[in-house]
Write a structure and sequence with these properties.
The complex is a heterodimer.
Chain A (H helix, E strand, L loop, with lengths): L4 E9 L2 E2 L14 H11 L4 E5 L9 H12 L4 E4 L5 H10 L3 E4 L1 H5 L2 H10 L4 E9 L9 E5 L4 E6 H11 L3 E6 L11 H10 L4 E4 L5 H9 L5 E4 L1 H4 L5 H10 L8
Parallel strand pairs in A: 1-3, 1-11, 3-4, 4-5, 5-6, 6-9, 9-10, 10-11
Antiparallel strand pairs in A: 1-2, 6-7, 7-8
Chain B lengths: L1 E5 L6 H14 L5 E5 L2 H6 L2 E4 L5 H9 L4 H11 L4 E4 L1 H4 L4 E2 L5 E2 L6 E5 L11 E6 L1 E2 L17 E6 L1 E5 L5 E6 L3 E8 L2 E4 L7 H13 L3
Parallel strand pairs in B: 1-2, 1-3, 3-4, 4-14, 5-7
Antiparallel strand pairs in B: 5-6, 7-11, 8-10, 9-12, 12-13, 13-14
Helix pairs in contact in B: 1-6
Classes of the chains: A alpha/beta, B alpha/beta.
Chain lengths: ~260, ~220
């Protein structure tokens, strides 16, 4: 039976982890490769690097980070941030990424998803959707796509967009609630479930995890097949092992070997 | 021992190379691992690995685009019977045809076509992405020492297609995803995994070590 995945996400800027990583025994917590090794040893099911480097001068650093990670970690690696062309994807895959996550470029030019999927296969192409609730209380729930870290509205309906990118070849959706992100009060379950039930590809829930119950809710109630979290792991609030044990105890199949 | 991992423009070869180096080291083997696009080097190799990430048709075209490569592989694997390991689309290329996006010919070593998986449970997502266990249908040296079955170790899958095997005896292991999905195929000196051993942590390193020691 396929197991639900627990995915730590590292935000990397100019080659350094920007949100804290507090592993005991980690020599340099700001080094993404050291953090990746620690998560590999801890039994993370996948690892996601999100490159938030703003300057184009430093954009190529992420390739070195990915390459060095792949030398040491024999686990699946997804890389996103600034992916705009087929050449970007090829370089990331050659460096050692297994999946590449596309965000803004998919909003601006959805055909890019089809070009990428045709070249590298659907299974390789993750579309990252940042969504925010735009309906008022009492109305039927509706979410829109936002770009630029949740600041820029696009007017695009999140459910319709998810279905569109899947029809174009996205093999997975990384769904972040911009309302919940950073709040530690749990995923937007209604959003997660609405999109997970609307597409046939796996959905990774993201944004808002503060407790291990939130991970359980993402799978059980949100119908996600994977749960992504950053700060609860980076700041040492919980280990990957504790997260998986908690999910296992709640009846969710996870990989414990 | 020279191990050639064939580079035909398809995906993540860096980590495959590193995983083979590590597995060789852990198995105490003196192996030279070469990620290569050179048909000449493949013609000298003791063991051949065909990885593959991407769409089937694109991978097949990429393999054909390397001068002399299909001929070199065929000579090494079919005529000289050197051990061969396929990975993911590299495994699917062992079959007769791939039906992803458009119909393209495989190498025709394993009977059957590469078709989209159809889980009996409509709630199961496609692609299958994640960790799943292996159900062994035929003992094989490549699985030596690896716990299999429901409580066994996990392998990392990321795929929408698999080989619908034409000969049941060429299936070594399946994985359960709303019914059996082909996980390992093999015959004679060739074997192939649908999952990614280079991404499957301890199961993967053990399997790669077994392949490097395999004397078919």
């Amino acid at each position: 039976m396929l197991k639900s995945r627990v995915i730590p996400c590292l935000d990397v800027k100019d080659g350094r982890v920007v949100k804290g990583v507090s592993f005991v025994d980690l020599i340099d917590a700001g080094d993404p490769v050291e953090a990746a090794k620690a998560y590999d040893a801890a039994g993370a099911d996948e690892l996601t690097f999100l490159d938030i480097t703003a300057s184009s001068d430093n954009r190529s650093i992420i390739f070195d980070v990915v390459s060095e990670t792949a030398e040491h970690c024999f686990m699946p690696l997804t890389v996103g941030g600034g992916v705009r062309e087929v050449a970007d994807i090829r370089k990331l895959l050659r460096a050692g990424a297994d999946k590449v996550s596309i965000n803004t470029a998919a909003v601006k030019r959805p055909e890019f998803v089809a070009e990428a999927a045709d070249k590298f296969g659907d299974q390789c192409i993750v579309v990252a959707i940042d969504a925010k609730r735009v309906s008022e209380d009492g109305e039927a729930a509706r979410w829109e796509i936002f770009t630029h870290g949740g600041r820029t509205p696009t007017g695009i309906d999140a459910v319709e967009f998810a279905q569109k990118v899947v029809s174009l070849g996205a093999g997975e959706i990384l769904l972040t609630s911009m309302d919940q992100d950073g709040r530690k009060t749990g995923y937007d379950i209604a959003l997660t479930r609405t999109i997970a039930d609307a597409v046939r590809v796996p959905v990774i829930a993201s944004g808002g995890v503060g407790t291990l119950d939130h991970l359980v809710e993402g799978i059980r109630d949100g119908h996600a097949t994977a749960v992504l979290a950053a700060s609860i792991f980076h700041f040492g609030t919980y280990t990957i092992g504790e997260a998986k044990q908690h999910m296992h105890d709640a009846g969710i199949p996870v990989r414990l070997d | 021992m020279l191990v050639a991992i064939i580079d035909y423009g398809s995906g993540n070869l860096h980590s495959a190379g590193k995983a083979f180096e590590r597995a060789a080291r852990e198995a105490g083997l003196d192996a030279r691992i070469e990620v290569t696009a050179s048909a000449d080097l493949v013609a000298k190799a003791d063991r051949i690995v065909l990885p593959g990430v991407g769409a089937y048709a694109d991978c097949r075209a990429g393999l054909d685009a390397v001068p002399g490569m299909v001929e070199a592989i065929t000579m090494q694997v079919i005529e000289k019977a050197h051990p061969f390991l396929g990975i993911c689309v590299g495994t699917q290329l062992m079959a007769e045809r791939g039906l992803e996006k458009r119909i393209s010919n495989g190498l025709g070593w394993i009977a059957g076509d590469v078709v989209e998986i159809e889980p009996s449970d409509p709630e199961l997502k496609i692609p299958q992405i994640g960790w799943n266990t292996l159900d062994v249908t035929r003992d094989h040296p490549i699985l030596a020492g690896i716990p299999t079955g429901t409580d066994g170790w996990h392998a990392y899958f990321v795929h929408s297609f698999h080989i619908a095997a034409g000969k049941p005896e060429e299936v070594v292991a399946t994985t359960d995803y709303g019914g059996p999905v082909t996980a390992i195929v093999g015959r004679d000196n060739m074997v192939g995994t649908q999952f990614h051993p280079e991404k499957s942590q301890k199961l993967g390193l053990a399997l790669i070590g077994n392949f490097l020691k395999w004397k078919p």
